[in-house]
Write a structure and sequence with these properties.
alpha+beta, five-stranded mixed beta barrel, four-stranded mixed sheet, 14 strands
Length: 506
């Protein structure tokens, strides 16, 4: 049979090797500590005891001791097993009958471990439990069950937001319970004081969505941080010297007035949420491609670990990080790219032969399809890219080769028919691009007039990508400053020579 408990080892040593219970316990301890010197000594004692007590041959006694020694790698005593059995039963019961409360407790137990929080949030989604964003007026210090439209959900805990500090959040909750809900960012700063409310903390709270209840865009609130802190400090000084400002109303109006700022794009908002919370709350970069991904039947990243080494795979996801590198021997460029879907993240190496063709689409936030081979050796999962494509968000475009709705970056480009000596500047926009973002791009282009044409590439949810010429009035000079400001949308200045084949439209 197979030994399960340490008590069985002690019984075997006692009955077969003639050990006393005290001697058997010493053998058990030596096995638990994996003490090789003591184990070698005990082997001789066991073999001699087996021969003396039960006339067991040396070969068989050695084989029995091998079984005992192997047990040391996994064994435990009965009381340990019983205790874990009770705990397992209790937790299983709670998870089955009180799933929201159980998962809230599990998340709170790992409140300082963003990676584990992300895993548990994924399990919550599989269980049909919603995770609602942090709210400075509703969140507790840790994760708490909360009723949402008649259904139980879990509210994100304030202490789980990065860079805010548990002590500061505890004081903000105490102030909320003492004097009521906060009405604005300025009210929050004024009530908890600038010794607690600092810029880094406020940035994190705003980026995480904790002040969304105010009804103002996160970018606008972000722009108010310094003024809110200054007004809170001034109010504290006035209270300290017993003065009341004659301009209190004007000061309050100055910090709450509407500001004209460029709203954060969906990509920016989601990136901040991922950074500070460990997962996306208000949406997902792949939302606009849900139909395409469903029709393509991509493999979930979480399932790739079950594949054999060097197996082929095909996934779809959003690029979250790109690191450009160079080979040691020849200095050729290549990249390491992290691609994320709804189930996990995969590290993908894009060697030079593929990189030189697809480098223009390796941009954080870009949604791509990746085909390659998986490397299951080592502690972490890695992959090597063979092809990288850009989804066009089209389920069926008449193609019969399984590549419908995709633009292949490895395809041979068409030569530009333009008479211009320089290629056009190509900007690409996903279906999630907002009107405000397009206005921002237009302003940036208008600020740098020049001779280079600009073409706009729109990924459409229900058709082939649309390519539009921006017109003669928006020809630009692509300075390094402009290139940096357009980096989110800029494909490449070389796309006319080796770009992505797209249907052009006037």
């Amino acid at each position: 049979g197979v030994m399960i408990y340490q008590e069985q080892v002690m019984a075997a040593a006692s009955k077969l090797g003639g050990y006393s219970l005290a001697q058997a316990d010493l053998l058990r301890r030596a096995m638990g500590k994996k003490d090789k010197k003591t184990m070698a000594k005990e082997r001789n004692n066991f073999i001699e005891g087996c021969a003396r007590t039960n006339k067991i041959p040396e070969k068989k006694a050695n084989a029995i001791f091998d079984l005992l020694e192997k047990f040391a790698g996994y064994g435990f005593n009965k009381s340990h097993s019983a205790a874990y059995g009770v705990i397992s039963y209790h937790t299983a019961y709670l998870k089955a009958h009180y799933p929201v409360e159980f998962m809230a407790g599990l998340l709170s137990n790992e409140i300082n471990n963003t990676d584990k929080i992300s895993i548990f949030v994924g399990e919550c989604k599989q269980m049909g439990i919603s995770i609602v964003p942090p709210d400075i007026n509703r969140s507790g210090l840790k994760f708490t069950p909360e009723s949402q439209d008649g259904k139980m959900a879990i509210r994100y805990g304030l202490a789980a937001i990065k860079n805010v500090g548990e002590a500061a959040m505890e004081m903000s909750i105490q102030e909320r319970e003492r004097a009521g809900e906060y009405t604005s960012l300025e009210d929050f700063c004024g009530r908890i004081g600038t010794r607690i409310a600092n810029r880094k903390m406020l940035e994190s709270l705003i980026k995480a969505g904790a002040f969304d209840f105010v009804g103002r865009d996160r970018a606008e609130l972000f722009a108010c941080i310094d003024e809110s802190l200054s007004c809170a400090a001034a109010a504290l000084r006035d209270r300290t010297v017993g003065q009341v400002s004659l301009f209190d109303e004007e000061t309050h109006a100055a910090t709450t007035r509407k500001r004209i700022v460029t709203p954060w794009s969906d990509h920016e908002k989601l990136s901040y949420e991922k950074e500070l919370l460990g997962f996306y709350v208000s949406g997902h970069p792949l939302d606009a491609y849900a139909d395409v991904f469903a029709s393509k039947n991509y493999q979930p990243i979480s399932s790739l670990g079950d594949l054999d080494d060097r197996s082929q795979f095909r996934i779809g996801g959003a690029i979250v990080q790109v690191e450009k590198k160079f080979t040691r021997r020849e200095g050729k460029p290549f990249a390491v790219v992290w691609v994320e879907d709804r189930t996990g993240t995969l590290e993908v190496v894009v060697w030079n032969d593929v990189y030189v063709v697809v480098s223009e689409i390796l941009v954080p936030g870009r949604v791509v399809e990746v085909r390659g081979t998986i490397d299951t050796r080592g502690d972490s999962l890695r992959a090597t890219a063979q092809k990288i494509r850009v989804p066009s968000a089209n389920k069926a475009n008449g193609a019969s080769n399984g590549n419908a709705g995709l633009s292949e970056a490895t395809a041979r480009p068409e030569r530009s028919t333009s008479a211009e000596s320089e290629p056009a500047v190509l900007l690409q926009f996903s279906p999630a691009t907002t009107k405000e973002e397009l206005c921002e791009v237009r302003e940036l282009l208008a600020s740098s007039p020049g001779r280079r044409r600009v073409q706009l590439l729109f990924d459409r949810p229900s058709g082939e990508p649309l390519r539009v010429d921006a017109g003669a009035d928006l020809c630009v000079e692509l300075t390094s400053d402009l290139e940096q400001k357009l980096v989110r949308w800029l494909v490449t200045t070389k796309s006319e020579r080796r770009g992505i084949p797209i249907d052009s439209a006037a």
